[in-house]
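Q: Could you fold this chain for me?
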Amino acid sequence: MTDFNLDNHISKTPDFPKEGITFYDISPALEDPDVLAHMMQDMTKLAAAFQPDIFAGIDARGFLFSMPLALALNCGTIMVRKAGKLPGKVLEESYALEYGTARLSMHASRTVKGKRVVLCDDLLATGGTLAAAEKLVERAGGSVVGAICVIELTGLKGRDRLGCDVAALQMYAF
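A: Sure. Below is the predicted structure, expressed as structure tokens.
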């Protein structure tokens, strides 16, 4: 593929889920094997710069990208889930939503202690989800060295809430 432009493969729906918000949908990019391969190659290059030992995929779309990244870079991956989805002893972290709060959880037994962890999600907006995941990993003894996303909404300044560098394939103001 030459002259690859991911923007051409992202669907934009204005005023969804509410007026003034644009919904950026990566589904068209995932449906095309050439686009998907190009995305994963580009994400792998960006993620390699963080020199990860392990990835932390964020529920649920982060899982789509963390596993192929882990395989490409000879790393492992863990899942950071929405609260209530994991059995046994878990670590949990709350974060603010527009109307209320939510929680993320991670098995307390995950082996991230002393490891370089890269967070992985499809979208960085306000940064609440990734910041909560960062806290979970740090509580488990890991060192978050970066975050990688397909899309970053730069105008929401989500990266300012994180204590690590962020890499994104596509950026939009809002």
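A (continued): The longest helix spans residues 33-48.
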